[in-house]
Specification:
The chain is an alpha+beta fold. The chain has helices spanning about 25-30, 60, 70-75, 90-100, 130-145, 160-165, 180-185, 200-205, 210-215, 220-225, 230-235, 270-290, 320-335; strands at about 15-20, 40-45, 55, 80-85, 110-115, 115-120, 150-155, 175, 255-265, 295-300, 305-320, 340-350, 365. The strands form three sheets. A five-stranded mixed β-sheet has the order 5-6-1-7-8. A five-stranded mixed β-sheet has the order 11-10-12-9-13, covered by helices on one side. A hairpin with a 2-residue loop joins β5 and β6.
């Protein structure tokens, strides 16, 4: 199916392409080491180092292994699992080559991560009529020049393009036409929505919301009552609406990670263990984007949805795991828990050294992410 460019429609329909590399880090390692091909592999810290999975190959995913899973859990699921340390310099180099391909078609390219980007091709440099044709050309060029595969989604806004790219992985291409948008969202299971993770989906299920159609029947007032500001986002995407522009050269002010827990935490030692794993992901992301930060912020959300933050600014930039964890732990211990249970923990670093170059959004991670990293 084709999505034409340049045709007039209601409110001048945009043409958005979302490109997502397939198991990027793991695929790079399998490409560069033939002995890894066809085998379950993860990129990340080893179980002996209490590491976490940064990326999992498709072979590993068959065992239920996913990004941000503790490595000790991953090895228990697959005893023959191969662990490979991240090579962020290589991933960054390949990402730069992929973005150069994007720029052949549009300057409106918004990098979400090293392996993921949105392109606004409503107008494009090569005057190609169909957005789906551009997506095919990009996929072909990526494979020819990097020997890696990518999946693409094409639609009228960022949300739908993102949803389309998740429909046919790996190495797929899906188009959601303007006239298909509302029906597509209505039939979509709520847990498949981008931005709705397991914890939020479970709450929606308890409210009788199981599909996009169910979500659409709820009023804005009701959704904001149950989900706060996020309710506004849910209200719009239930109607296939998303007016967020593709922002080229977007400045990122912080890098961090957070996790919502399926079961509220009530044990201090478990809370600190989770905090250490979050610190590991933050360290990986700082290394990934070659930056460090001076202000660390700890985020804690209690079971009653009350949220507090604690921050500390250092005289020098930090980026090492031990420093991040010790500072986060000190901030955590300054909080009076009052026998309360915790549903979310997060760590972020701001006042980044190269904030003008950092374009990656902060992604929730771990057991029940609303958005996955890889």
């Amino acid at each position: 199916m084709e999505l034409p460019l340049g045709q007039e429609s209601v409110a001048r329909t945009r043409k958005i392409v979302h490109v997502d590399m397939d198991a990027f880090y793991a695929s790079v390692e399998q490409r560069d080491n033939p002995s890894y091909r066809g085998k379950p592999l993860v990129v990340g810290g080893s179980p002996n180092q209490r590491g976490v999975v940064a990326a999992a190959s498709y072979e590993a995913r068959k065992f239920g292994i996913h990004s941000a899973m503790p490595s000790v859990t991953a090895i228990a699921k697959c005893p023959g699992l191969i662990f490979v340390r991240p090579r962020f310099d290589v991933y960054r180099e390949i990402s730069a080559a992929i973005h150069a391909i994007f720029k052949r078609y549009s300057d409106l390219v918004e990098g979400v991560a090293l392996d993921e980007a949105y392109l606004d091709v409503t107008e494009n440099k090569q005057n190609i009529t169909y957005a789906s044709t551009i997506a095919r050309h990009i996929k072909t060029a990526i494979f020819q020049e990097t020997k890696l595969t990518a999946t693409a989604g094409v639609s009228i806004n960022k949300f739908l393009a993102k949803m389309a790219s998740g429909q046919n992985k790996p190495n797929g291409l899906t188009v959601i036409l303007p006239e298909q948008a509302v029906a597509f969202v209505e039939q979509l299971p709520i847990e498949k929505f981008h931005g709705i993770g397991e914890v939020t989906a479970a709450k929606m299920h308890s409210l009788g919301i199981h599909t996009g159609a169910d979500l659409k029947r709820r009023s804005l007032t009701e959704l904001t009552h149950h989900f706060g500001k996020a309710g506004q986002y849910y209200y719009k995407i239930a109607r296939a609406e998303d007016d967020r522009p593709v922002e080229a050269n977007r400045v990122r002010k912080s890098i961090g990670a957070e996790t919502s827990f399926a079961q509220d935490l009530n044990d201090i030692s478990q809370m600190l263990q989770e905090l250490e794993q979050i610190a590991q992901i933050v360290e990986q992301r700082l290394e990934q984007h070659e930056t460090r930060g001076r202000t660390l912020t700890l985020k804690v959300k209690f079971s009653d949805y009350q949220q507090i933050t604690r921050s500390k600014t250092m005289f020098v930039s930090i980026g090492e795991l031990d420093t991040i964890f010790e500072l986060a732990k000190a901030l955590f211990k300054s909080i009076d828990l009052e026998n309360r249970t915790i549903r979310l923990l997060g760590i972020s670093l701001s006042n980044l050294d190269n904030a003008k170059q950092t374009q990656v959004i902060q992604l929730p991670l771990f057991q029940n992410p609303d958005i996955t990293w890889e």
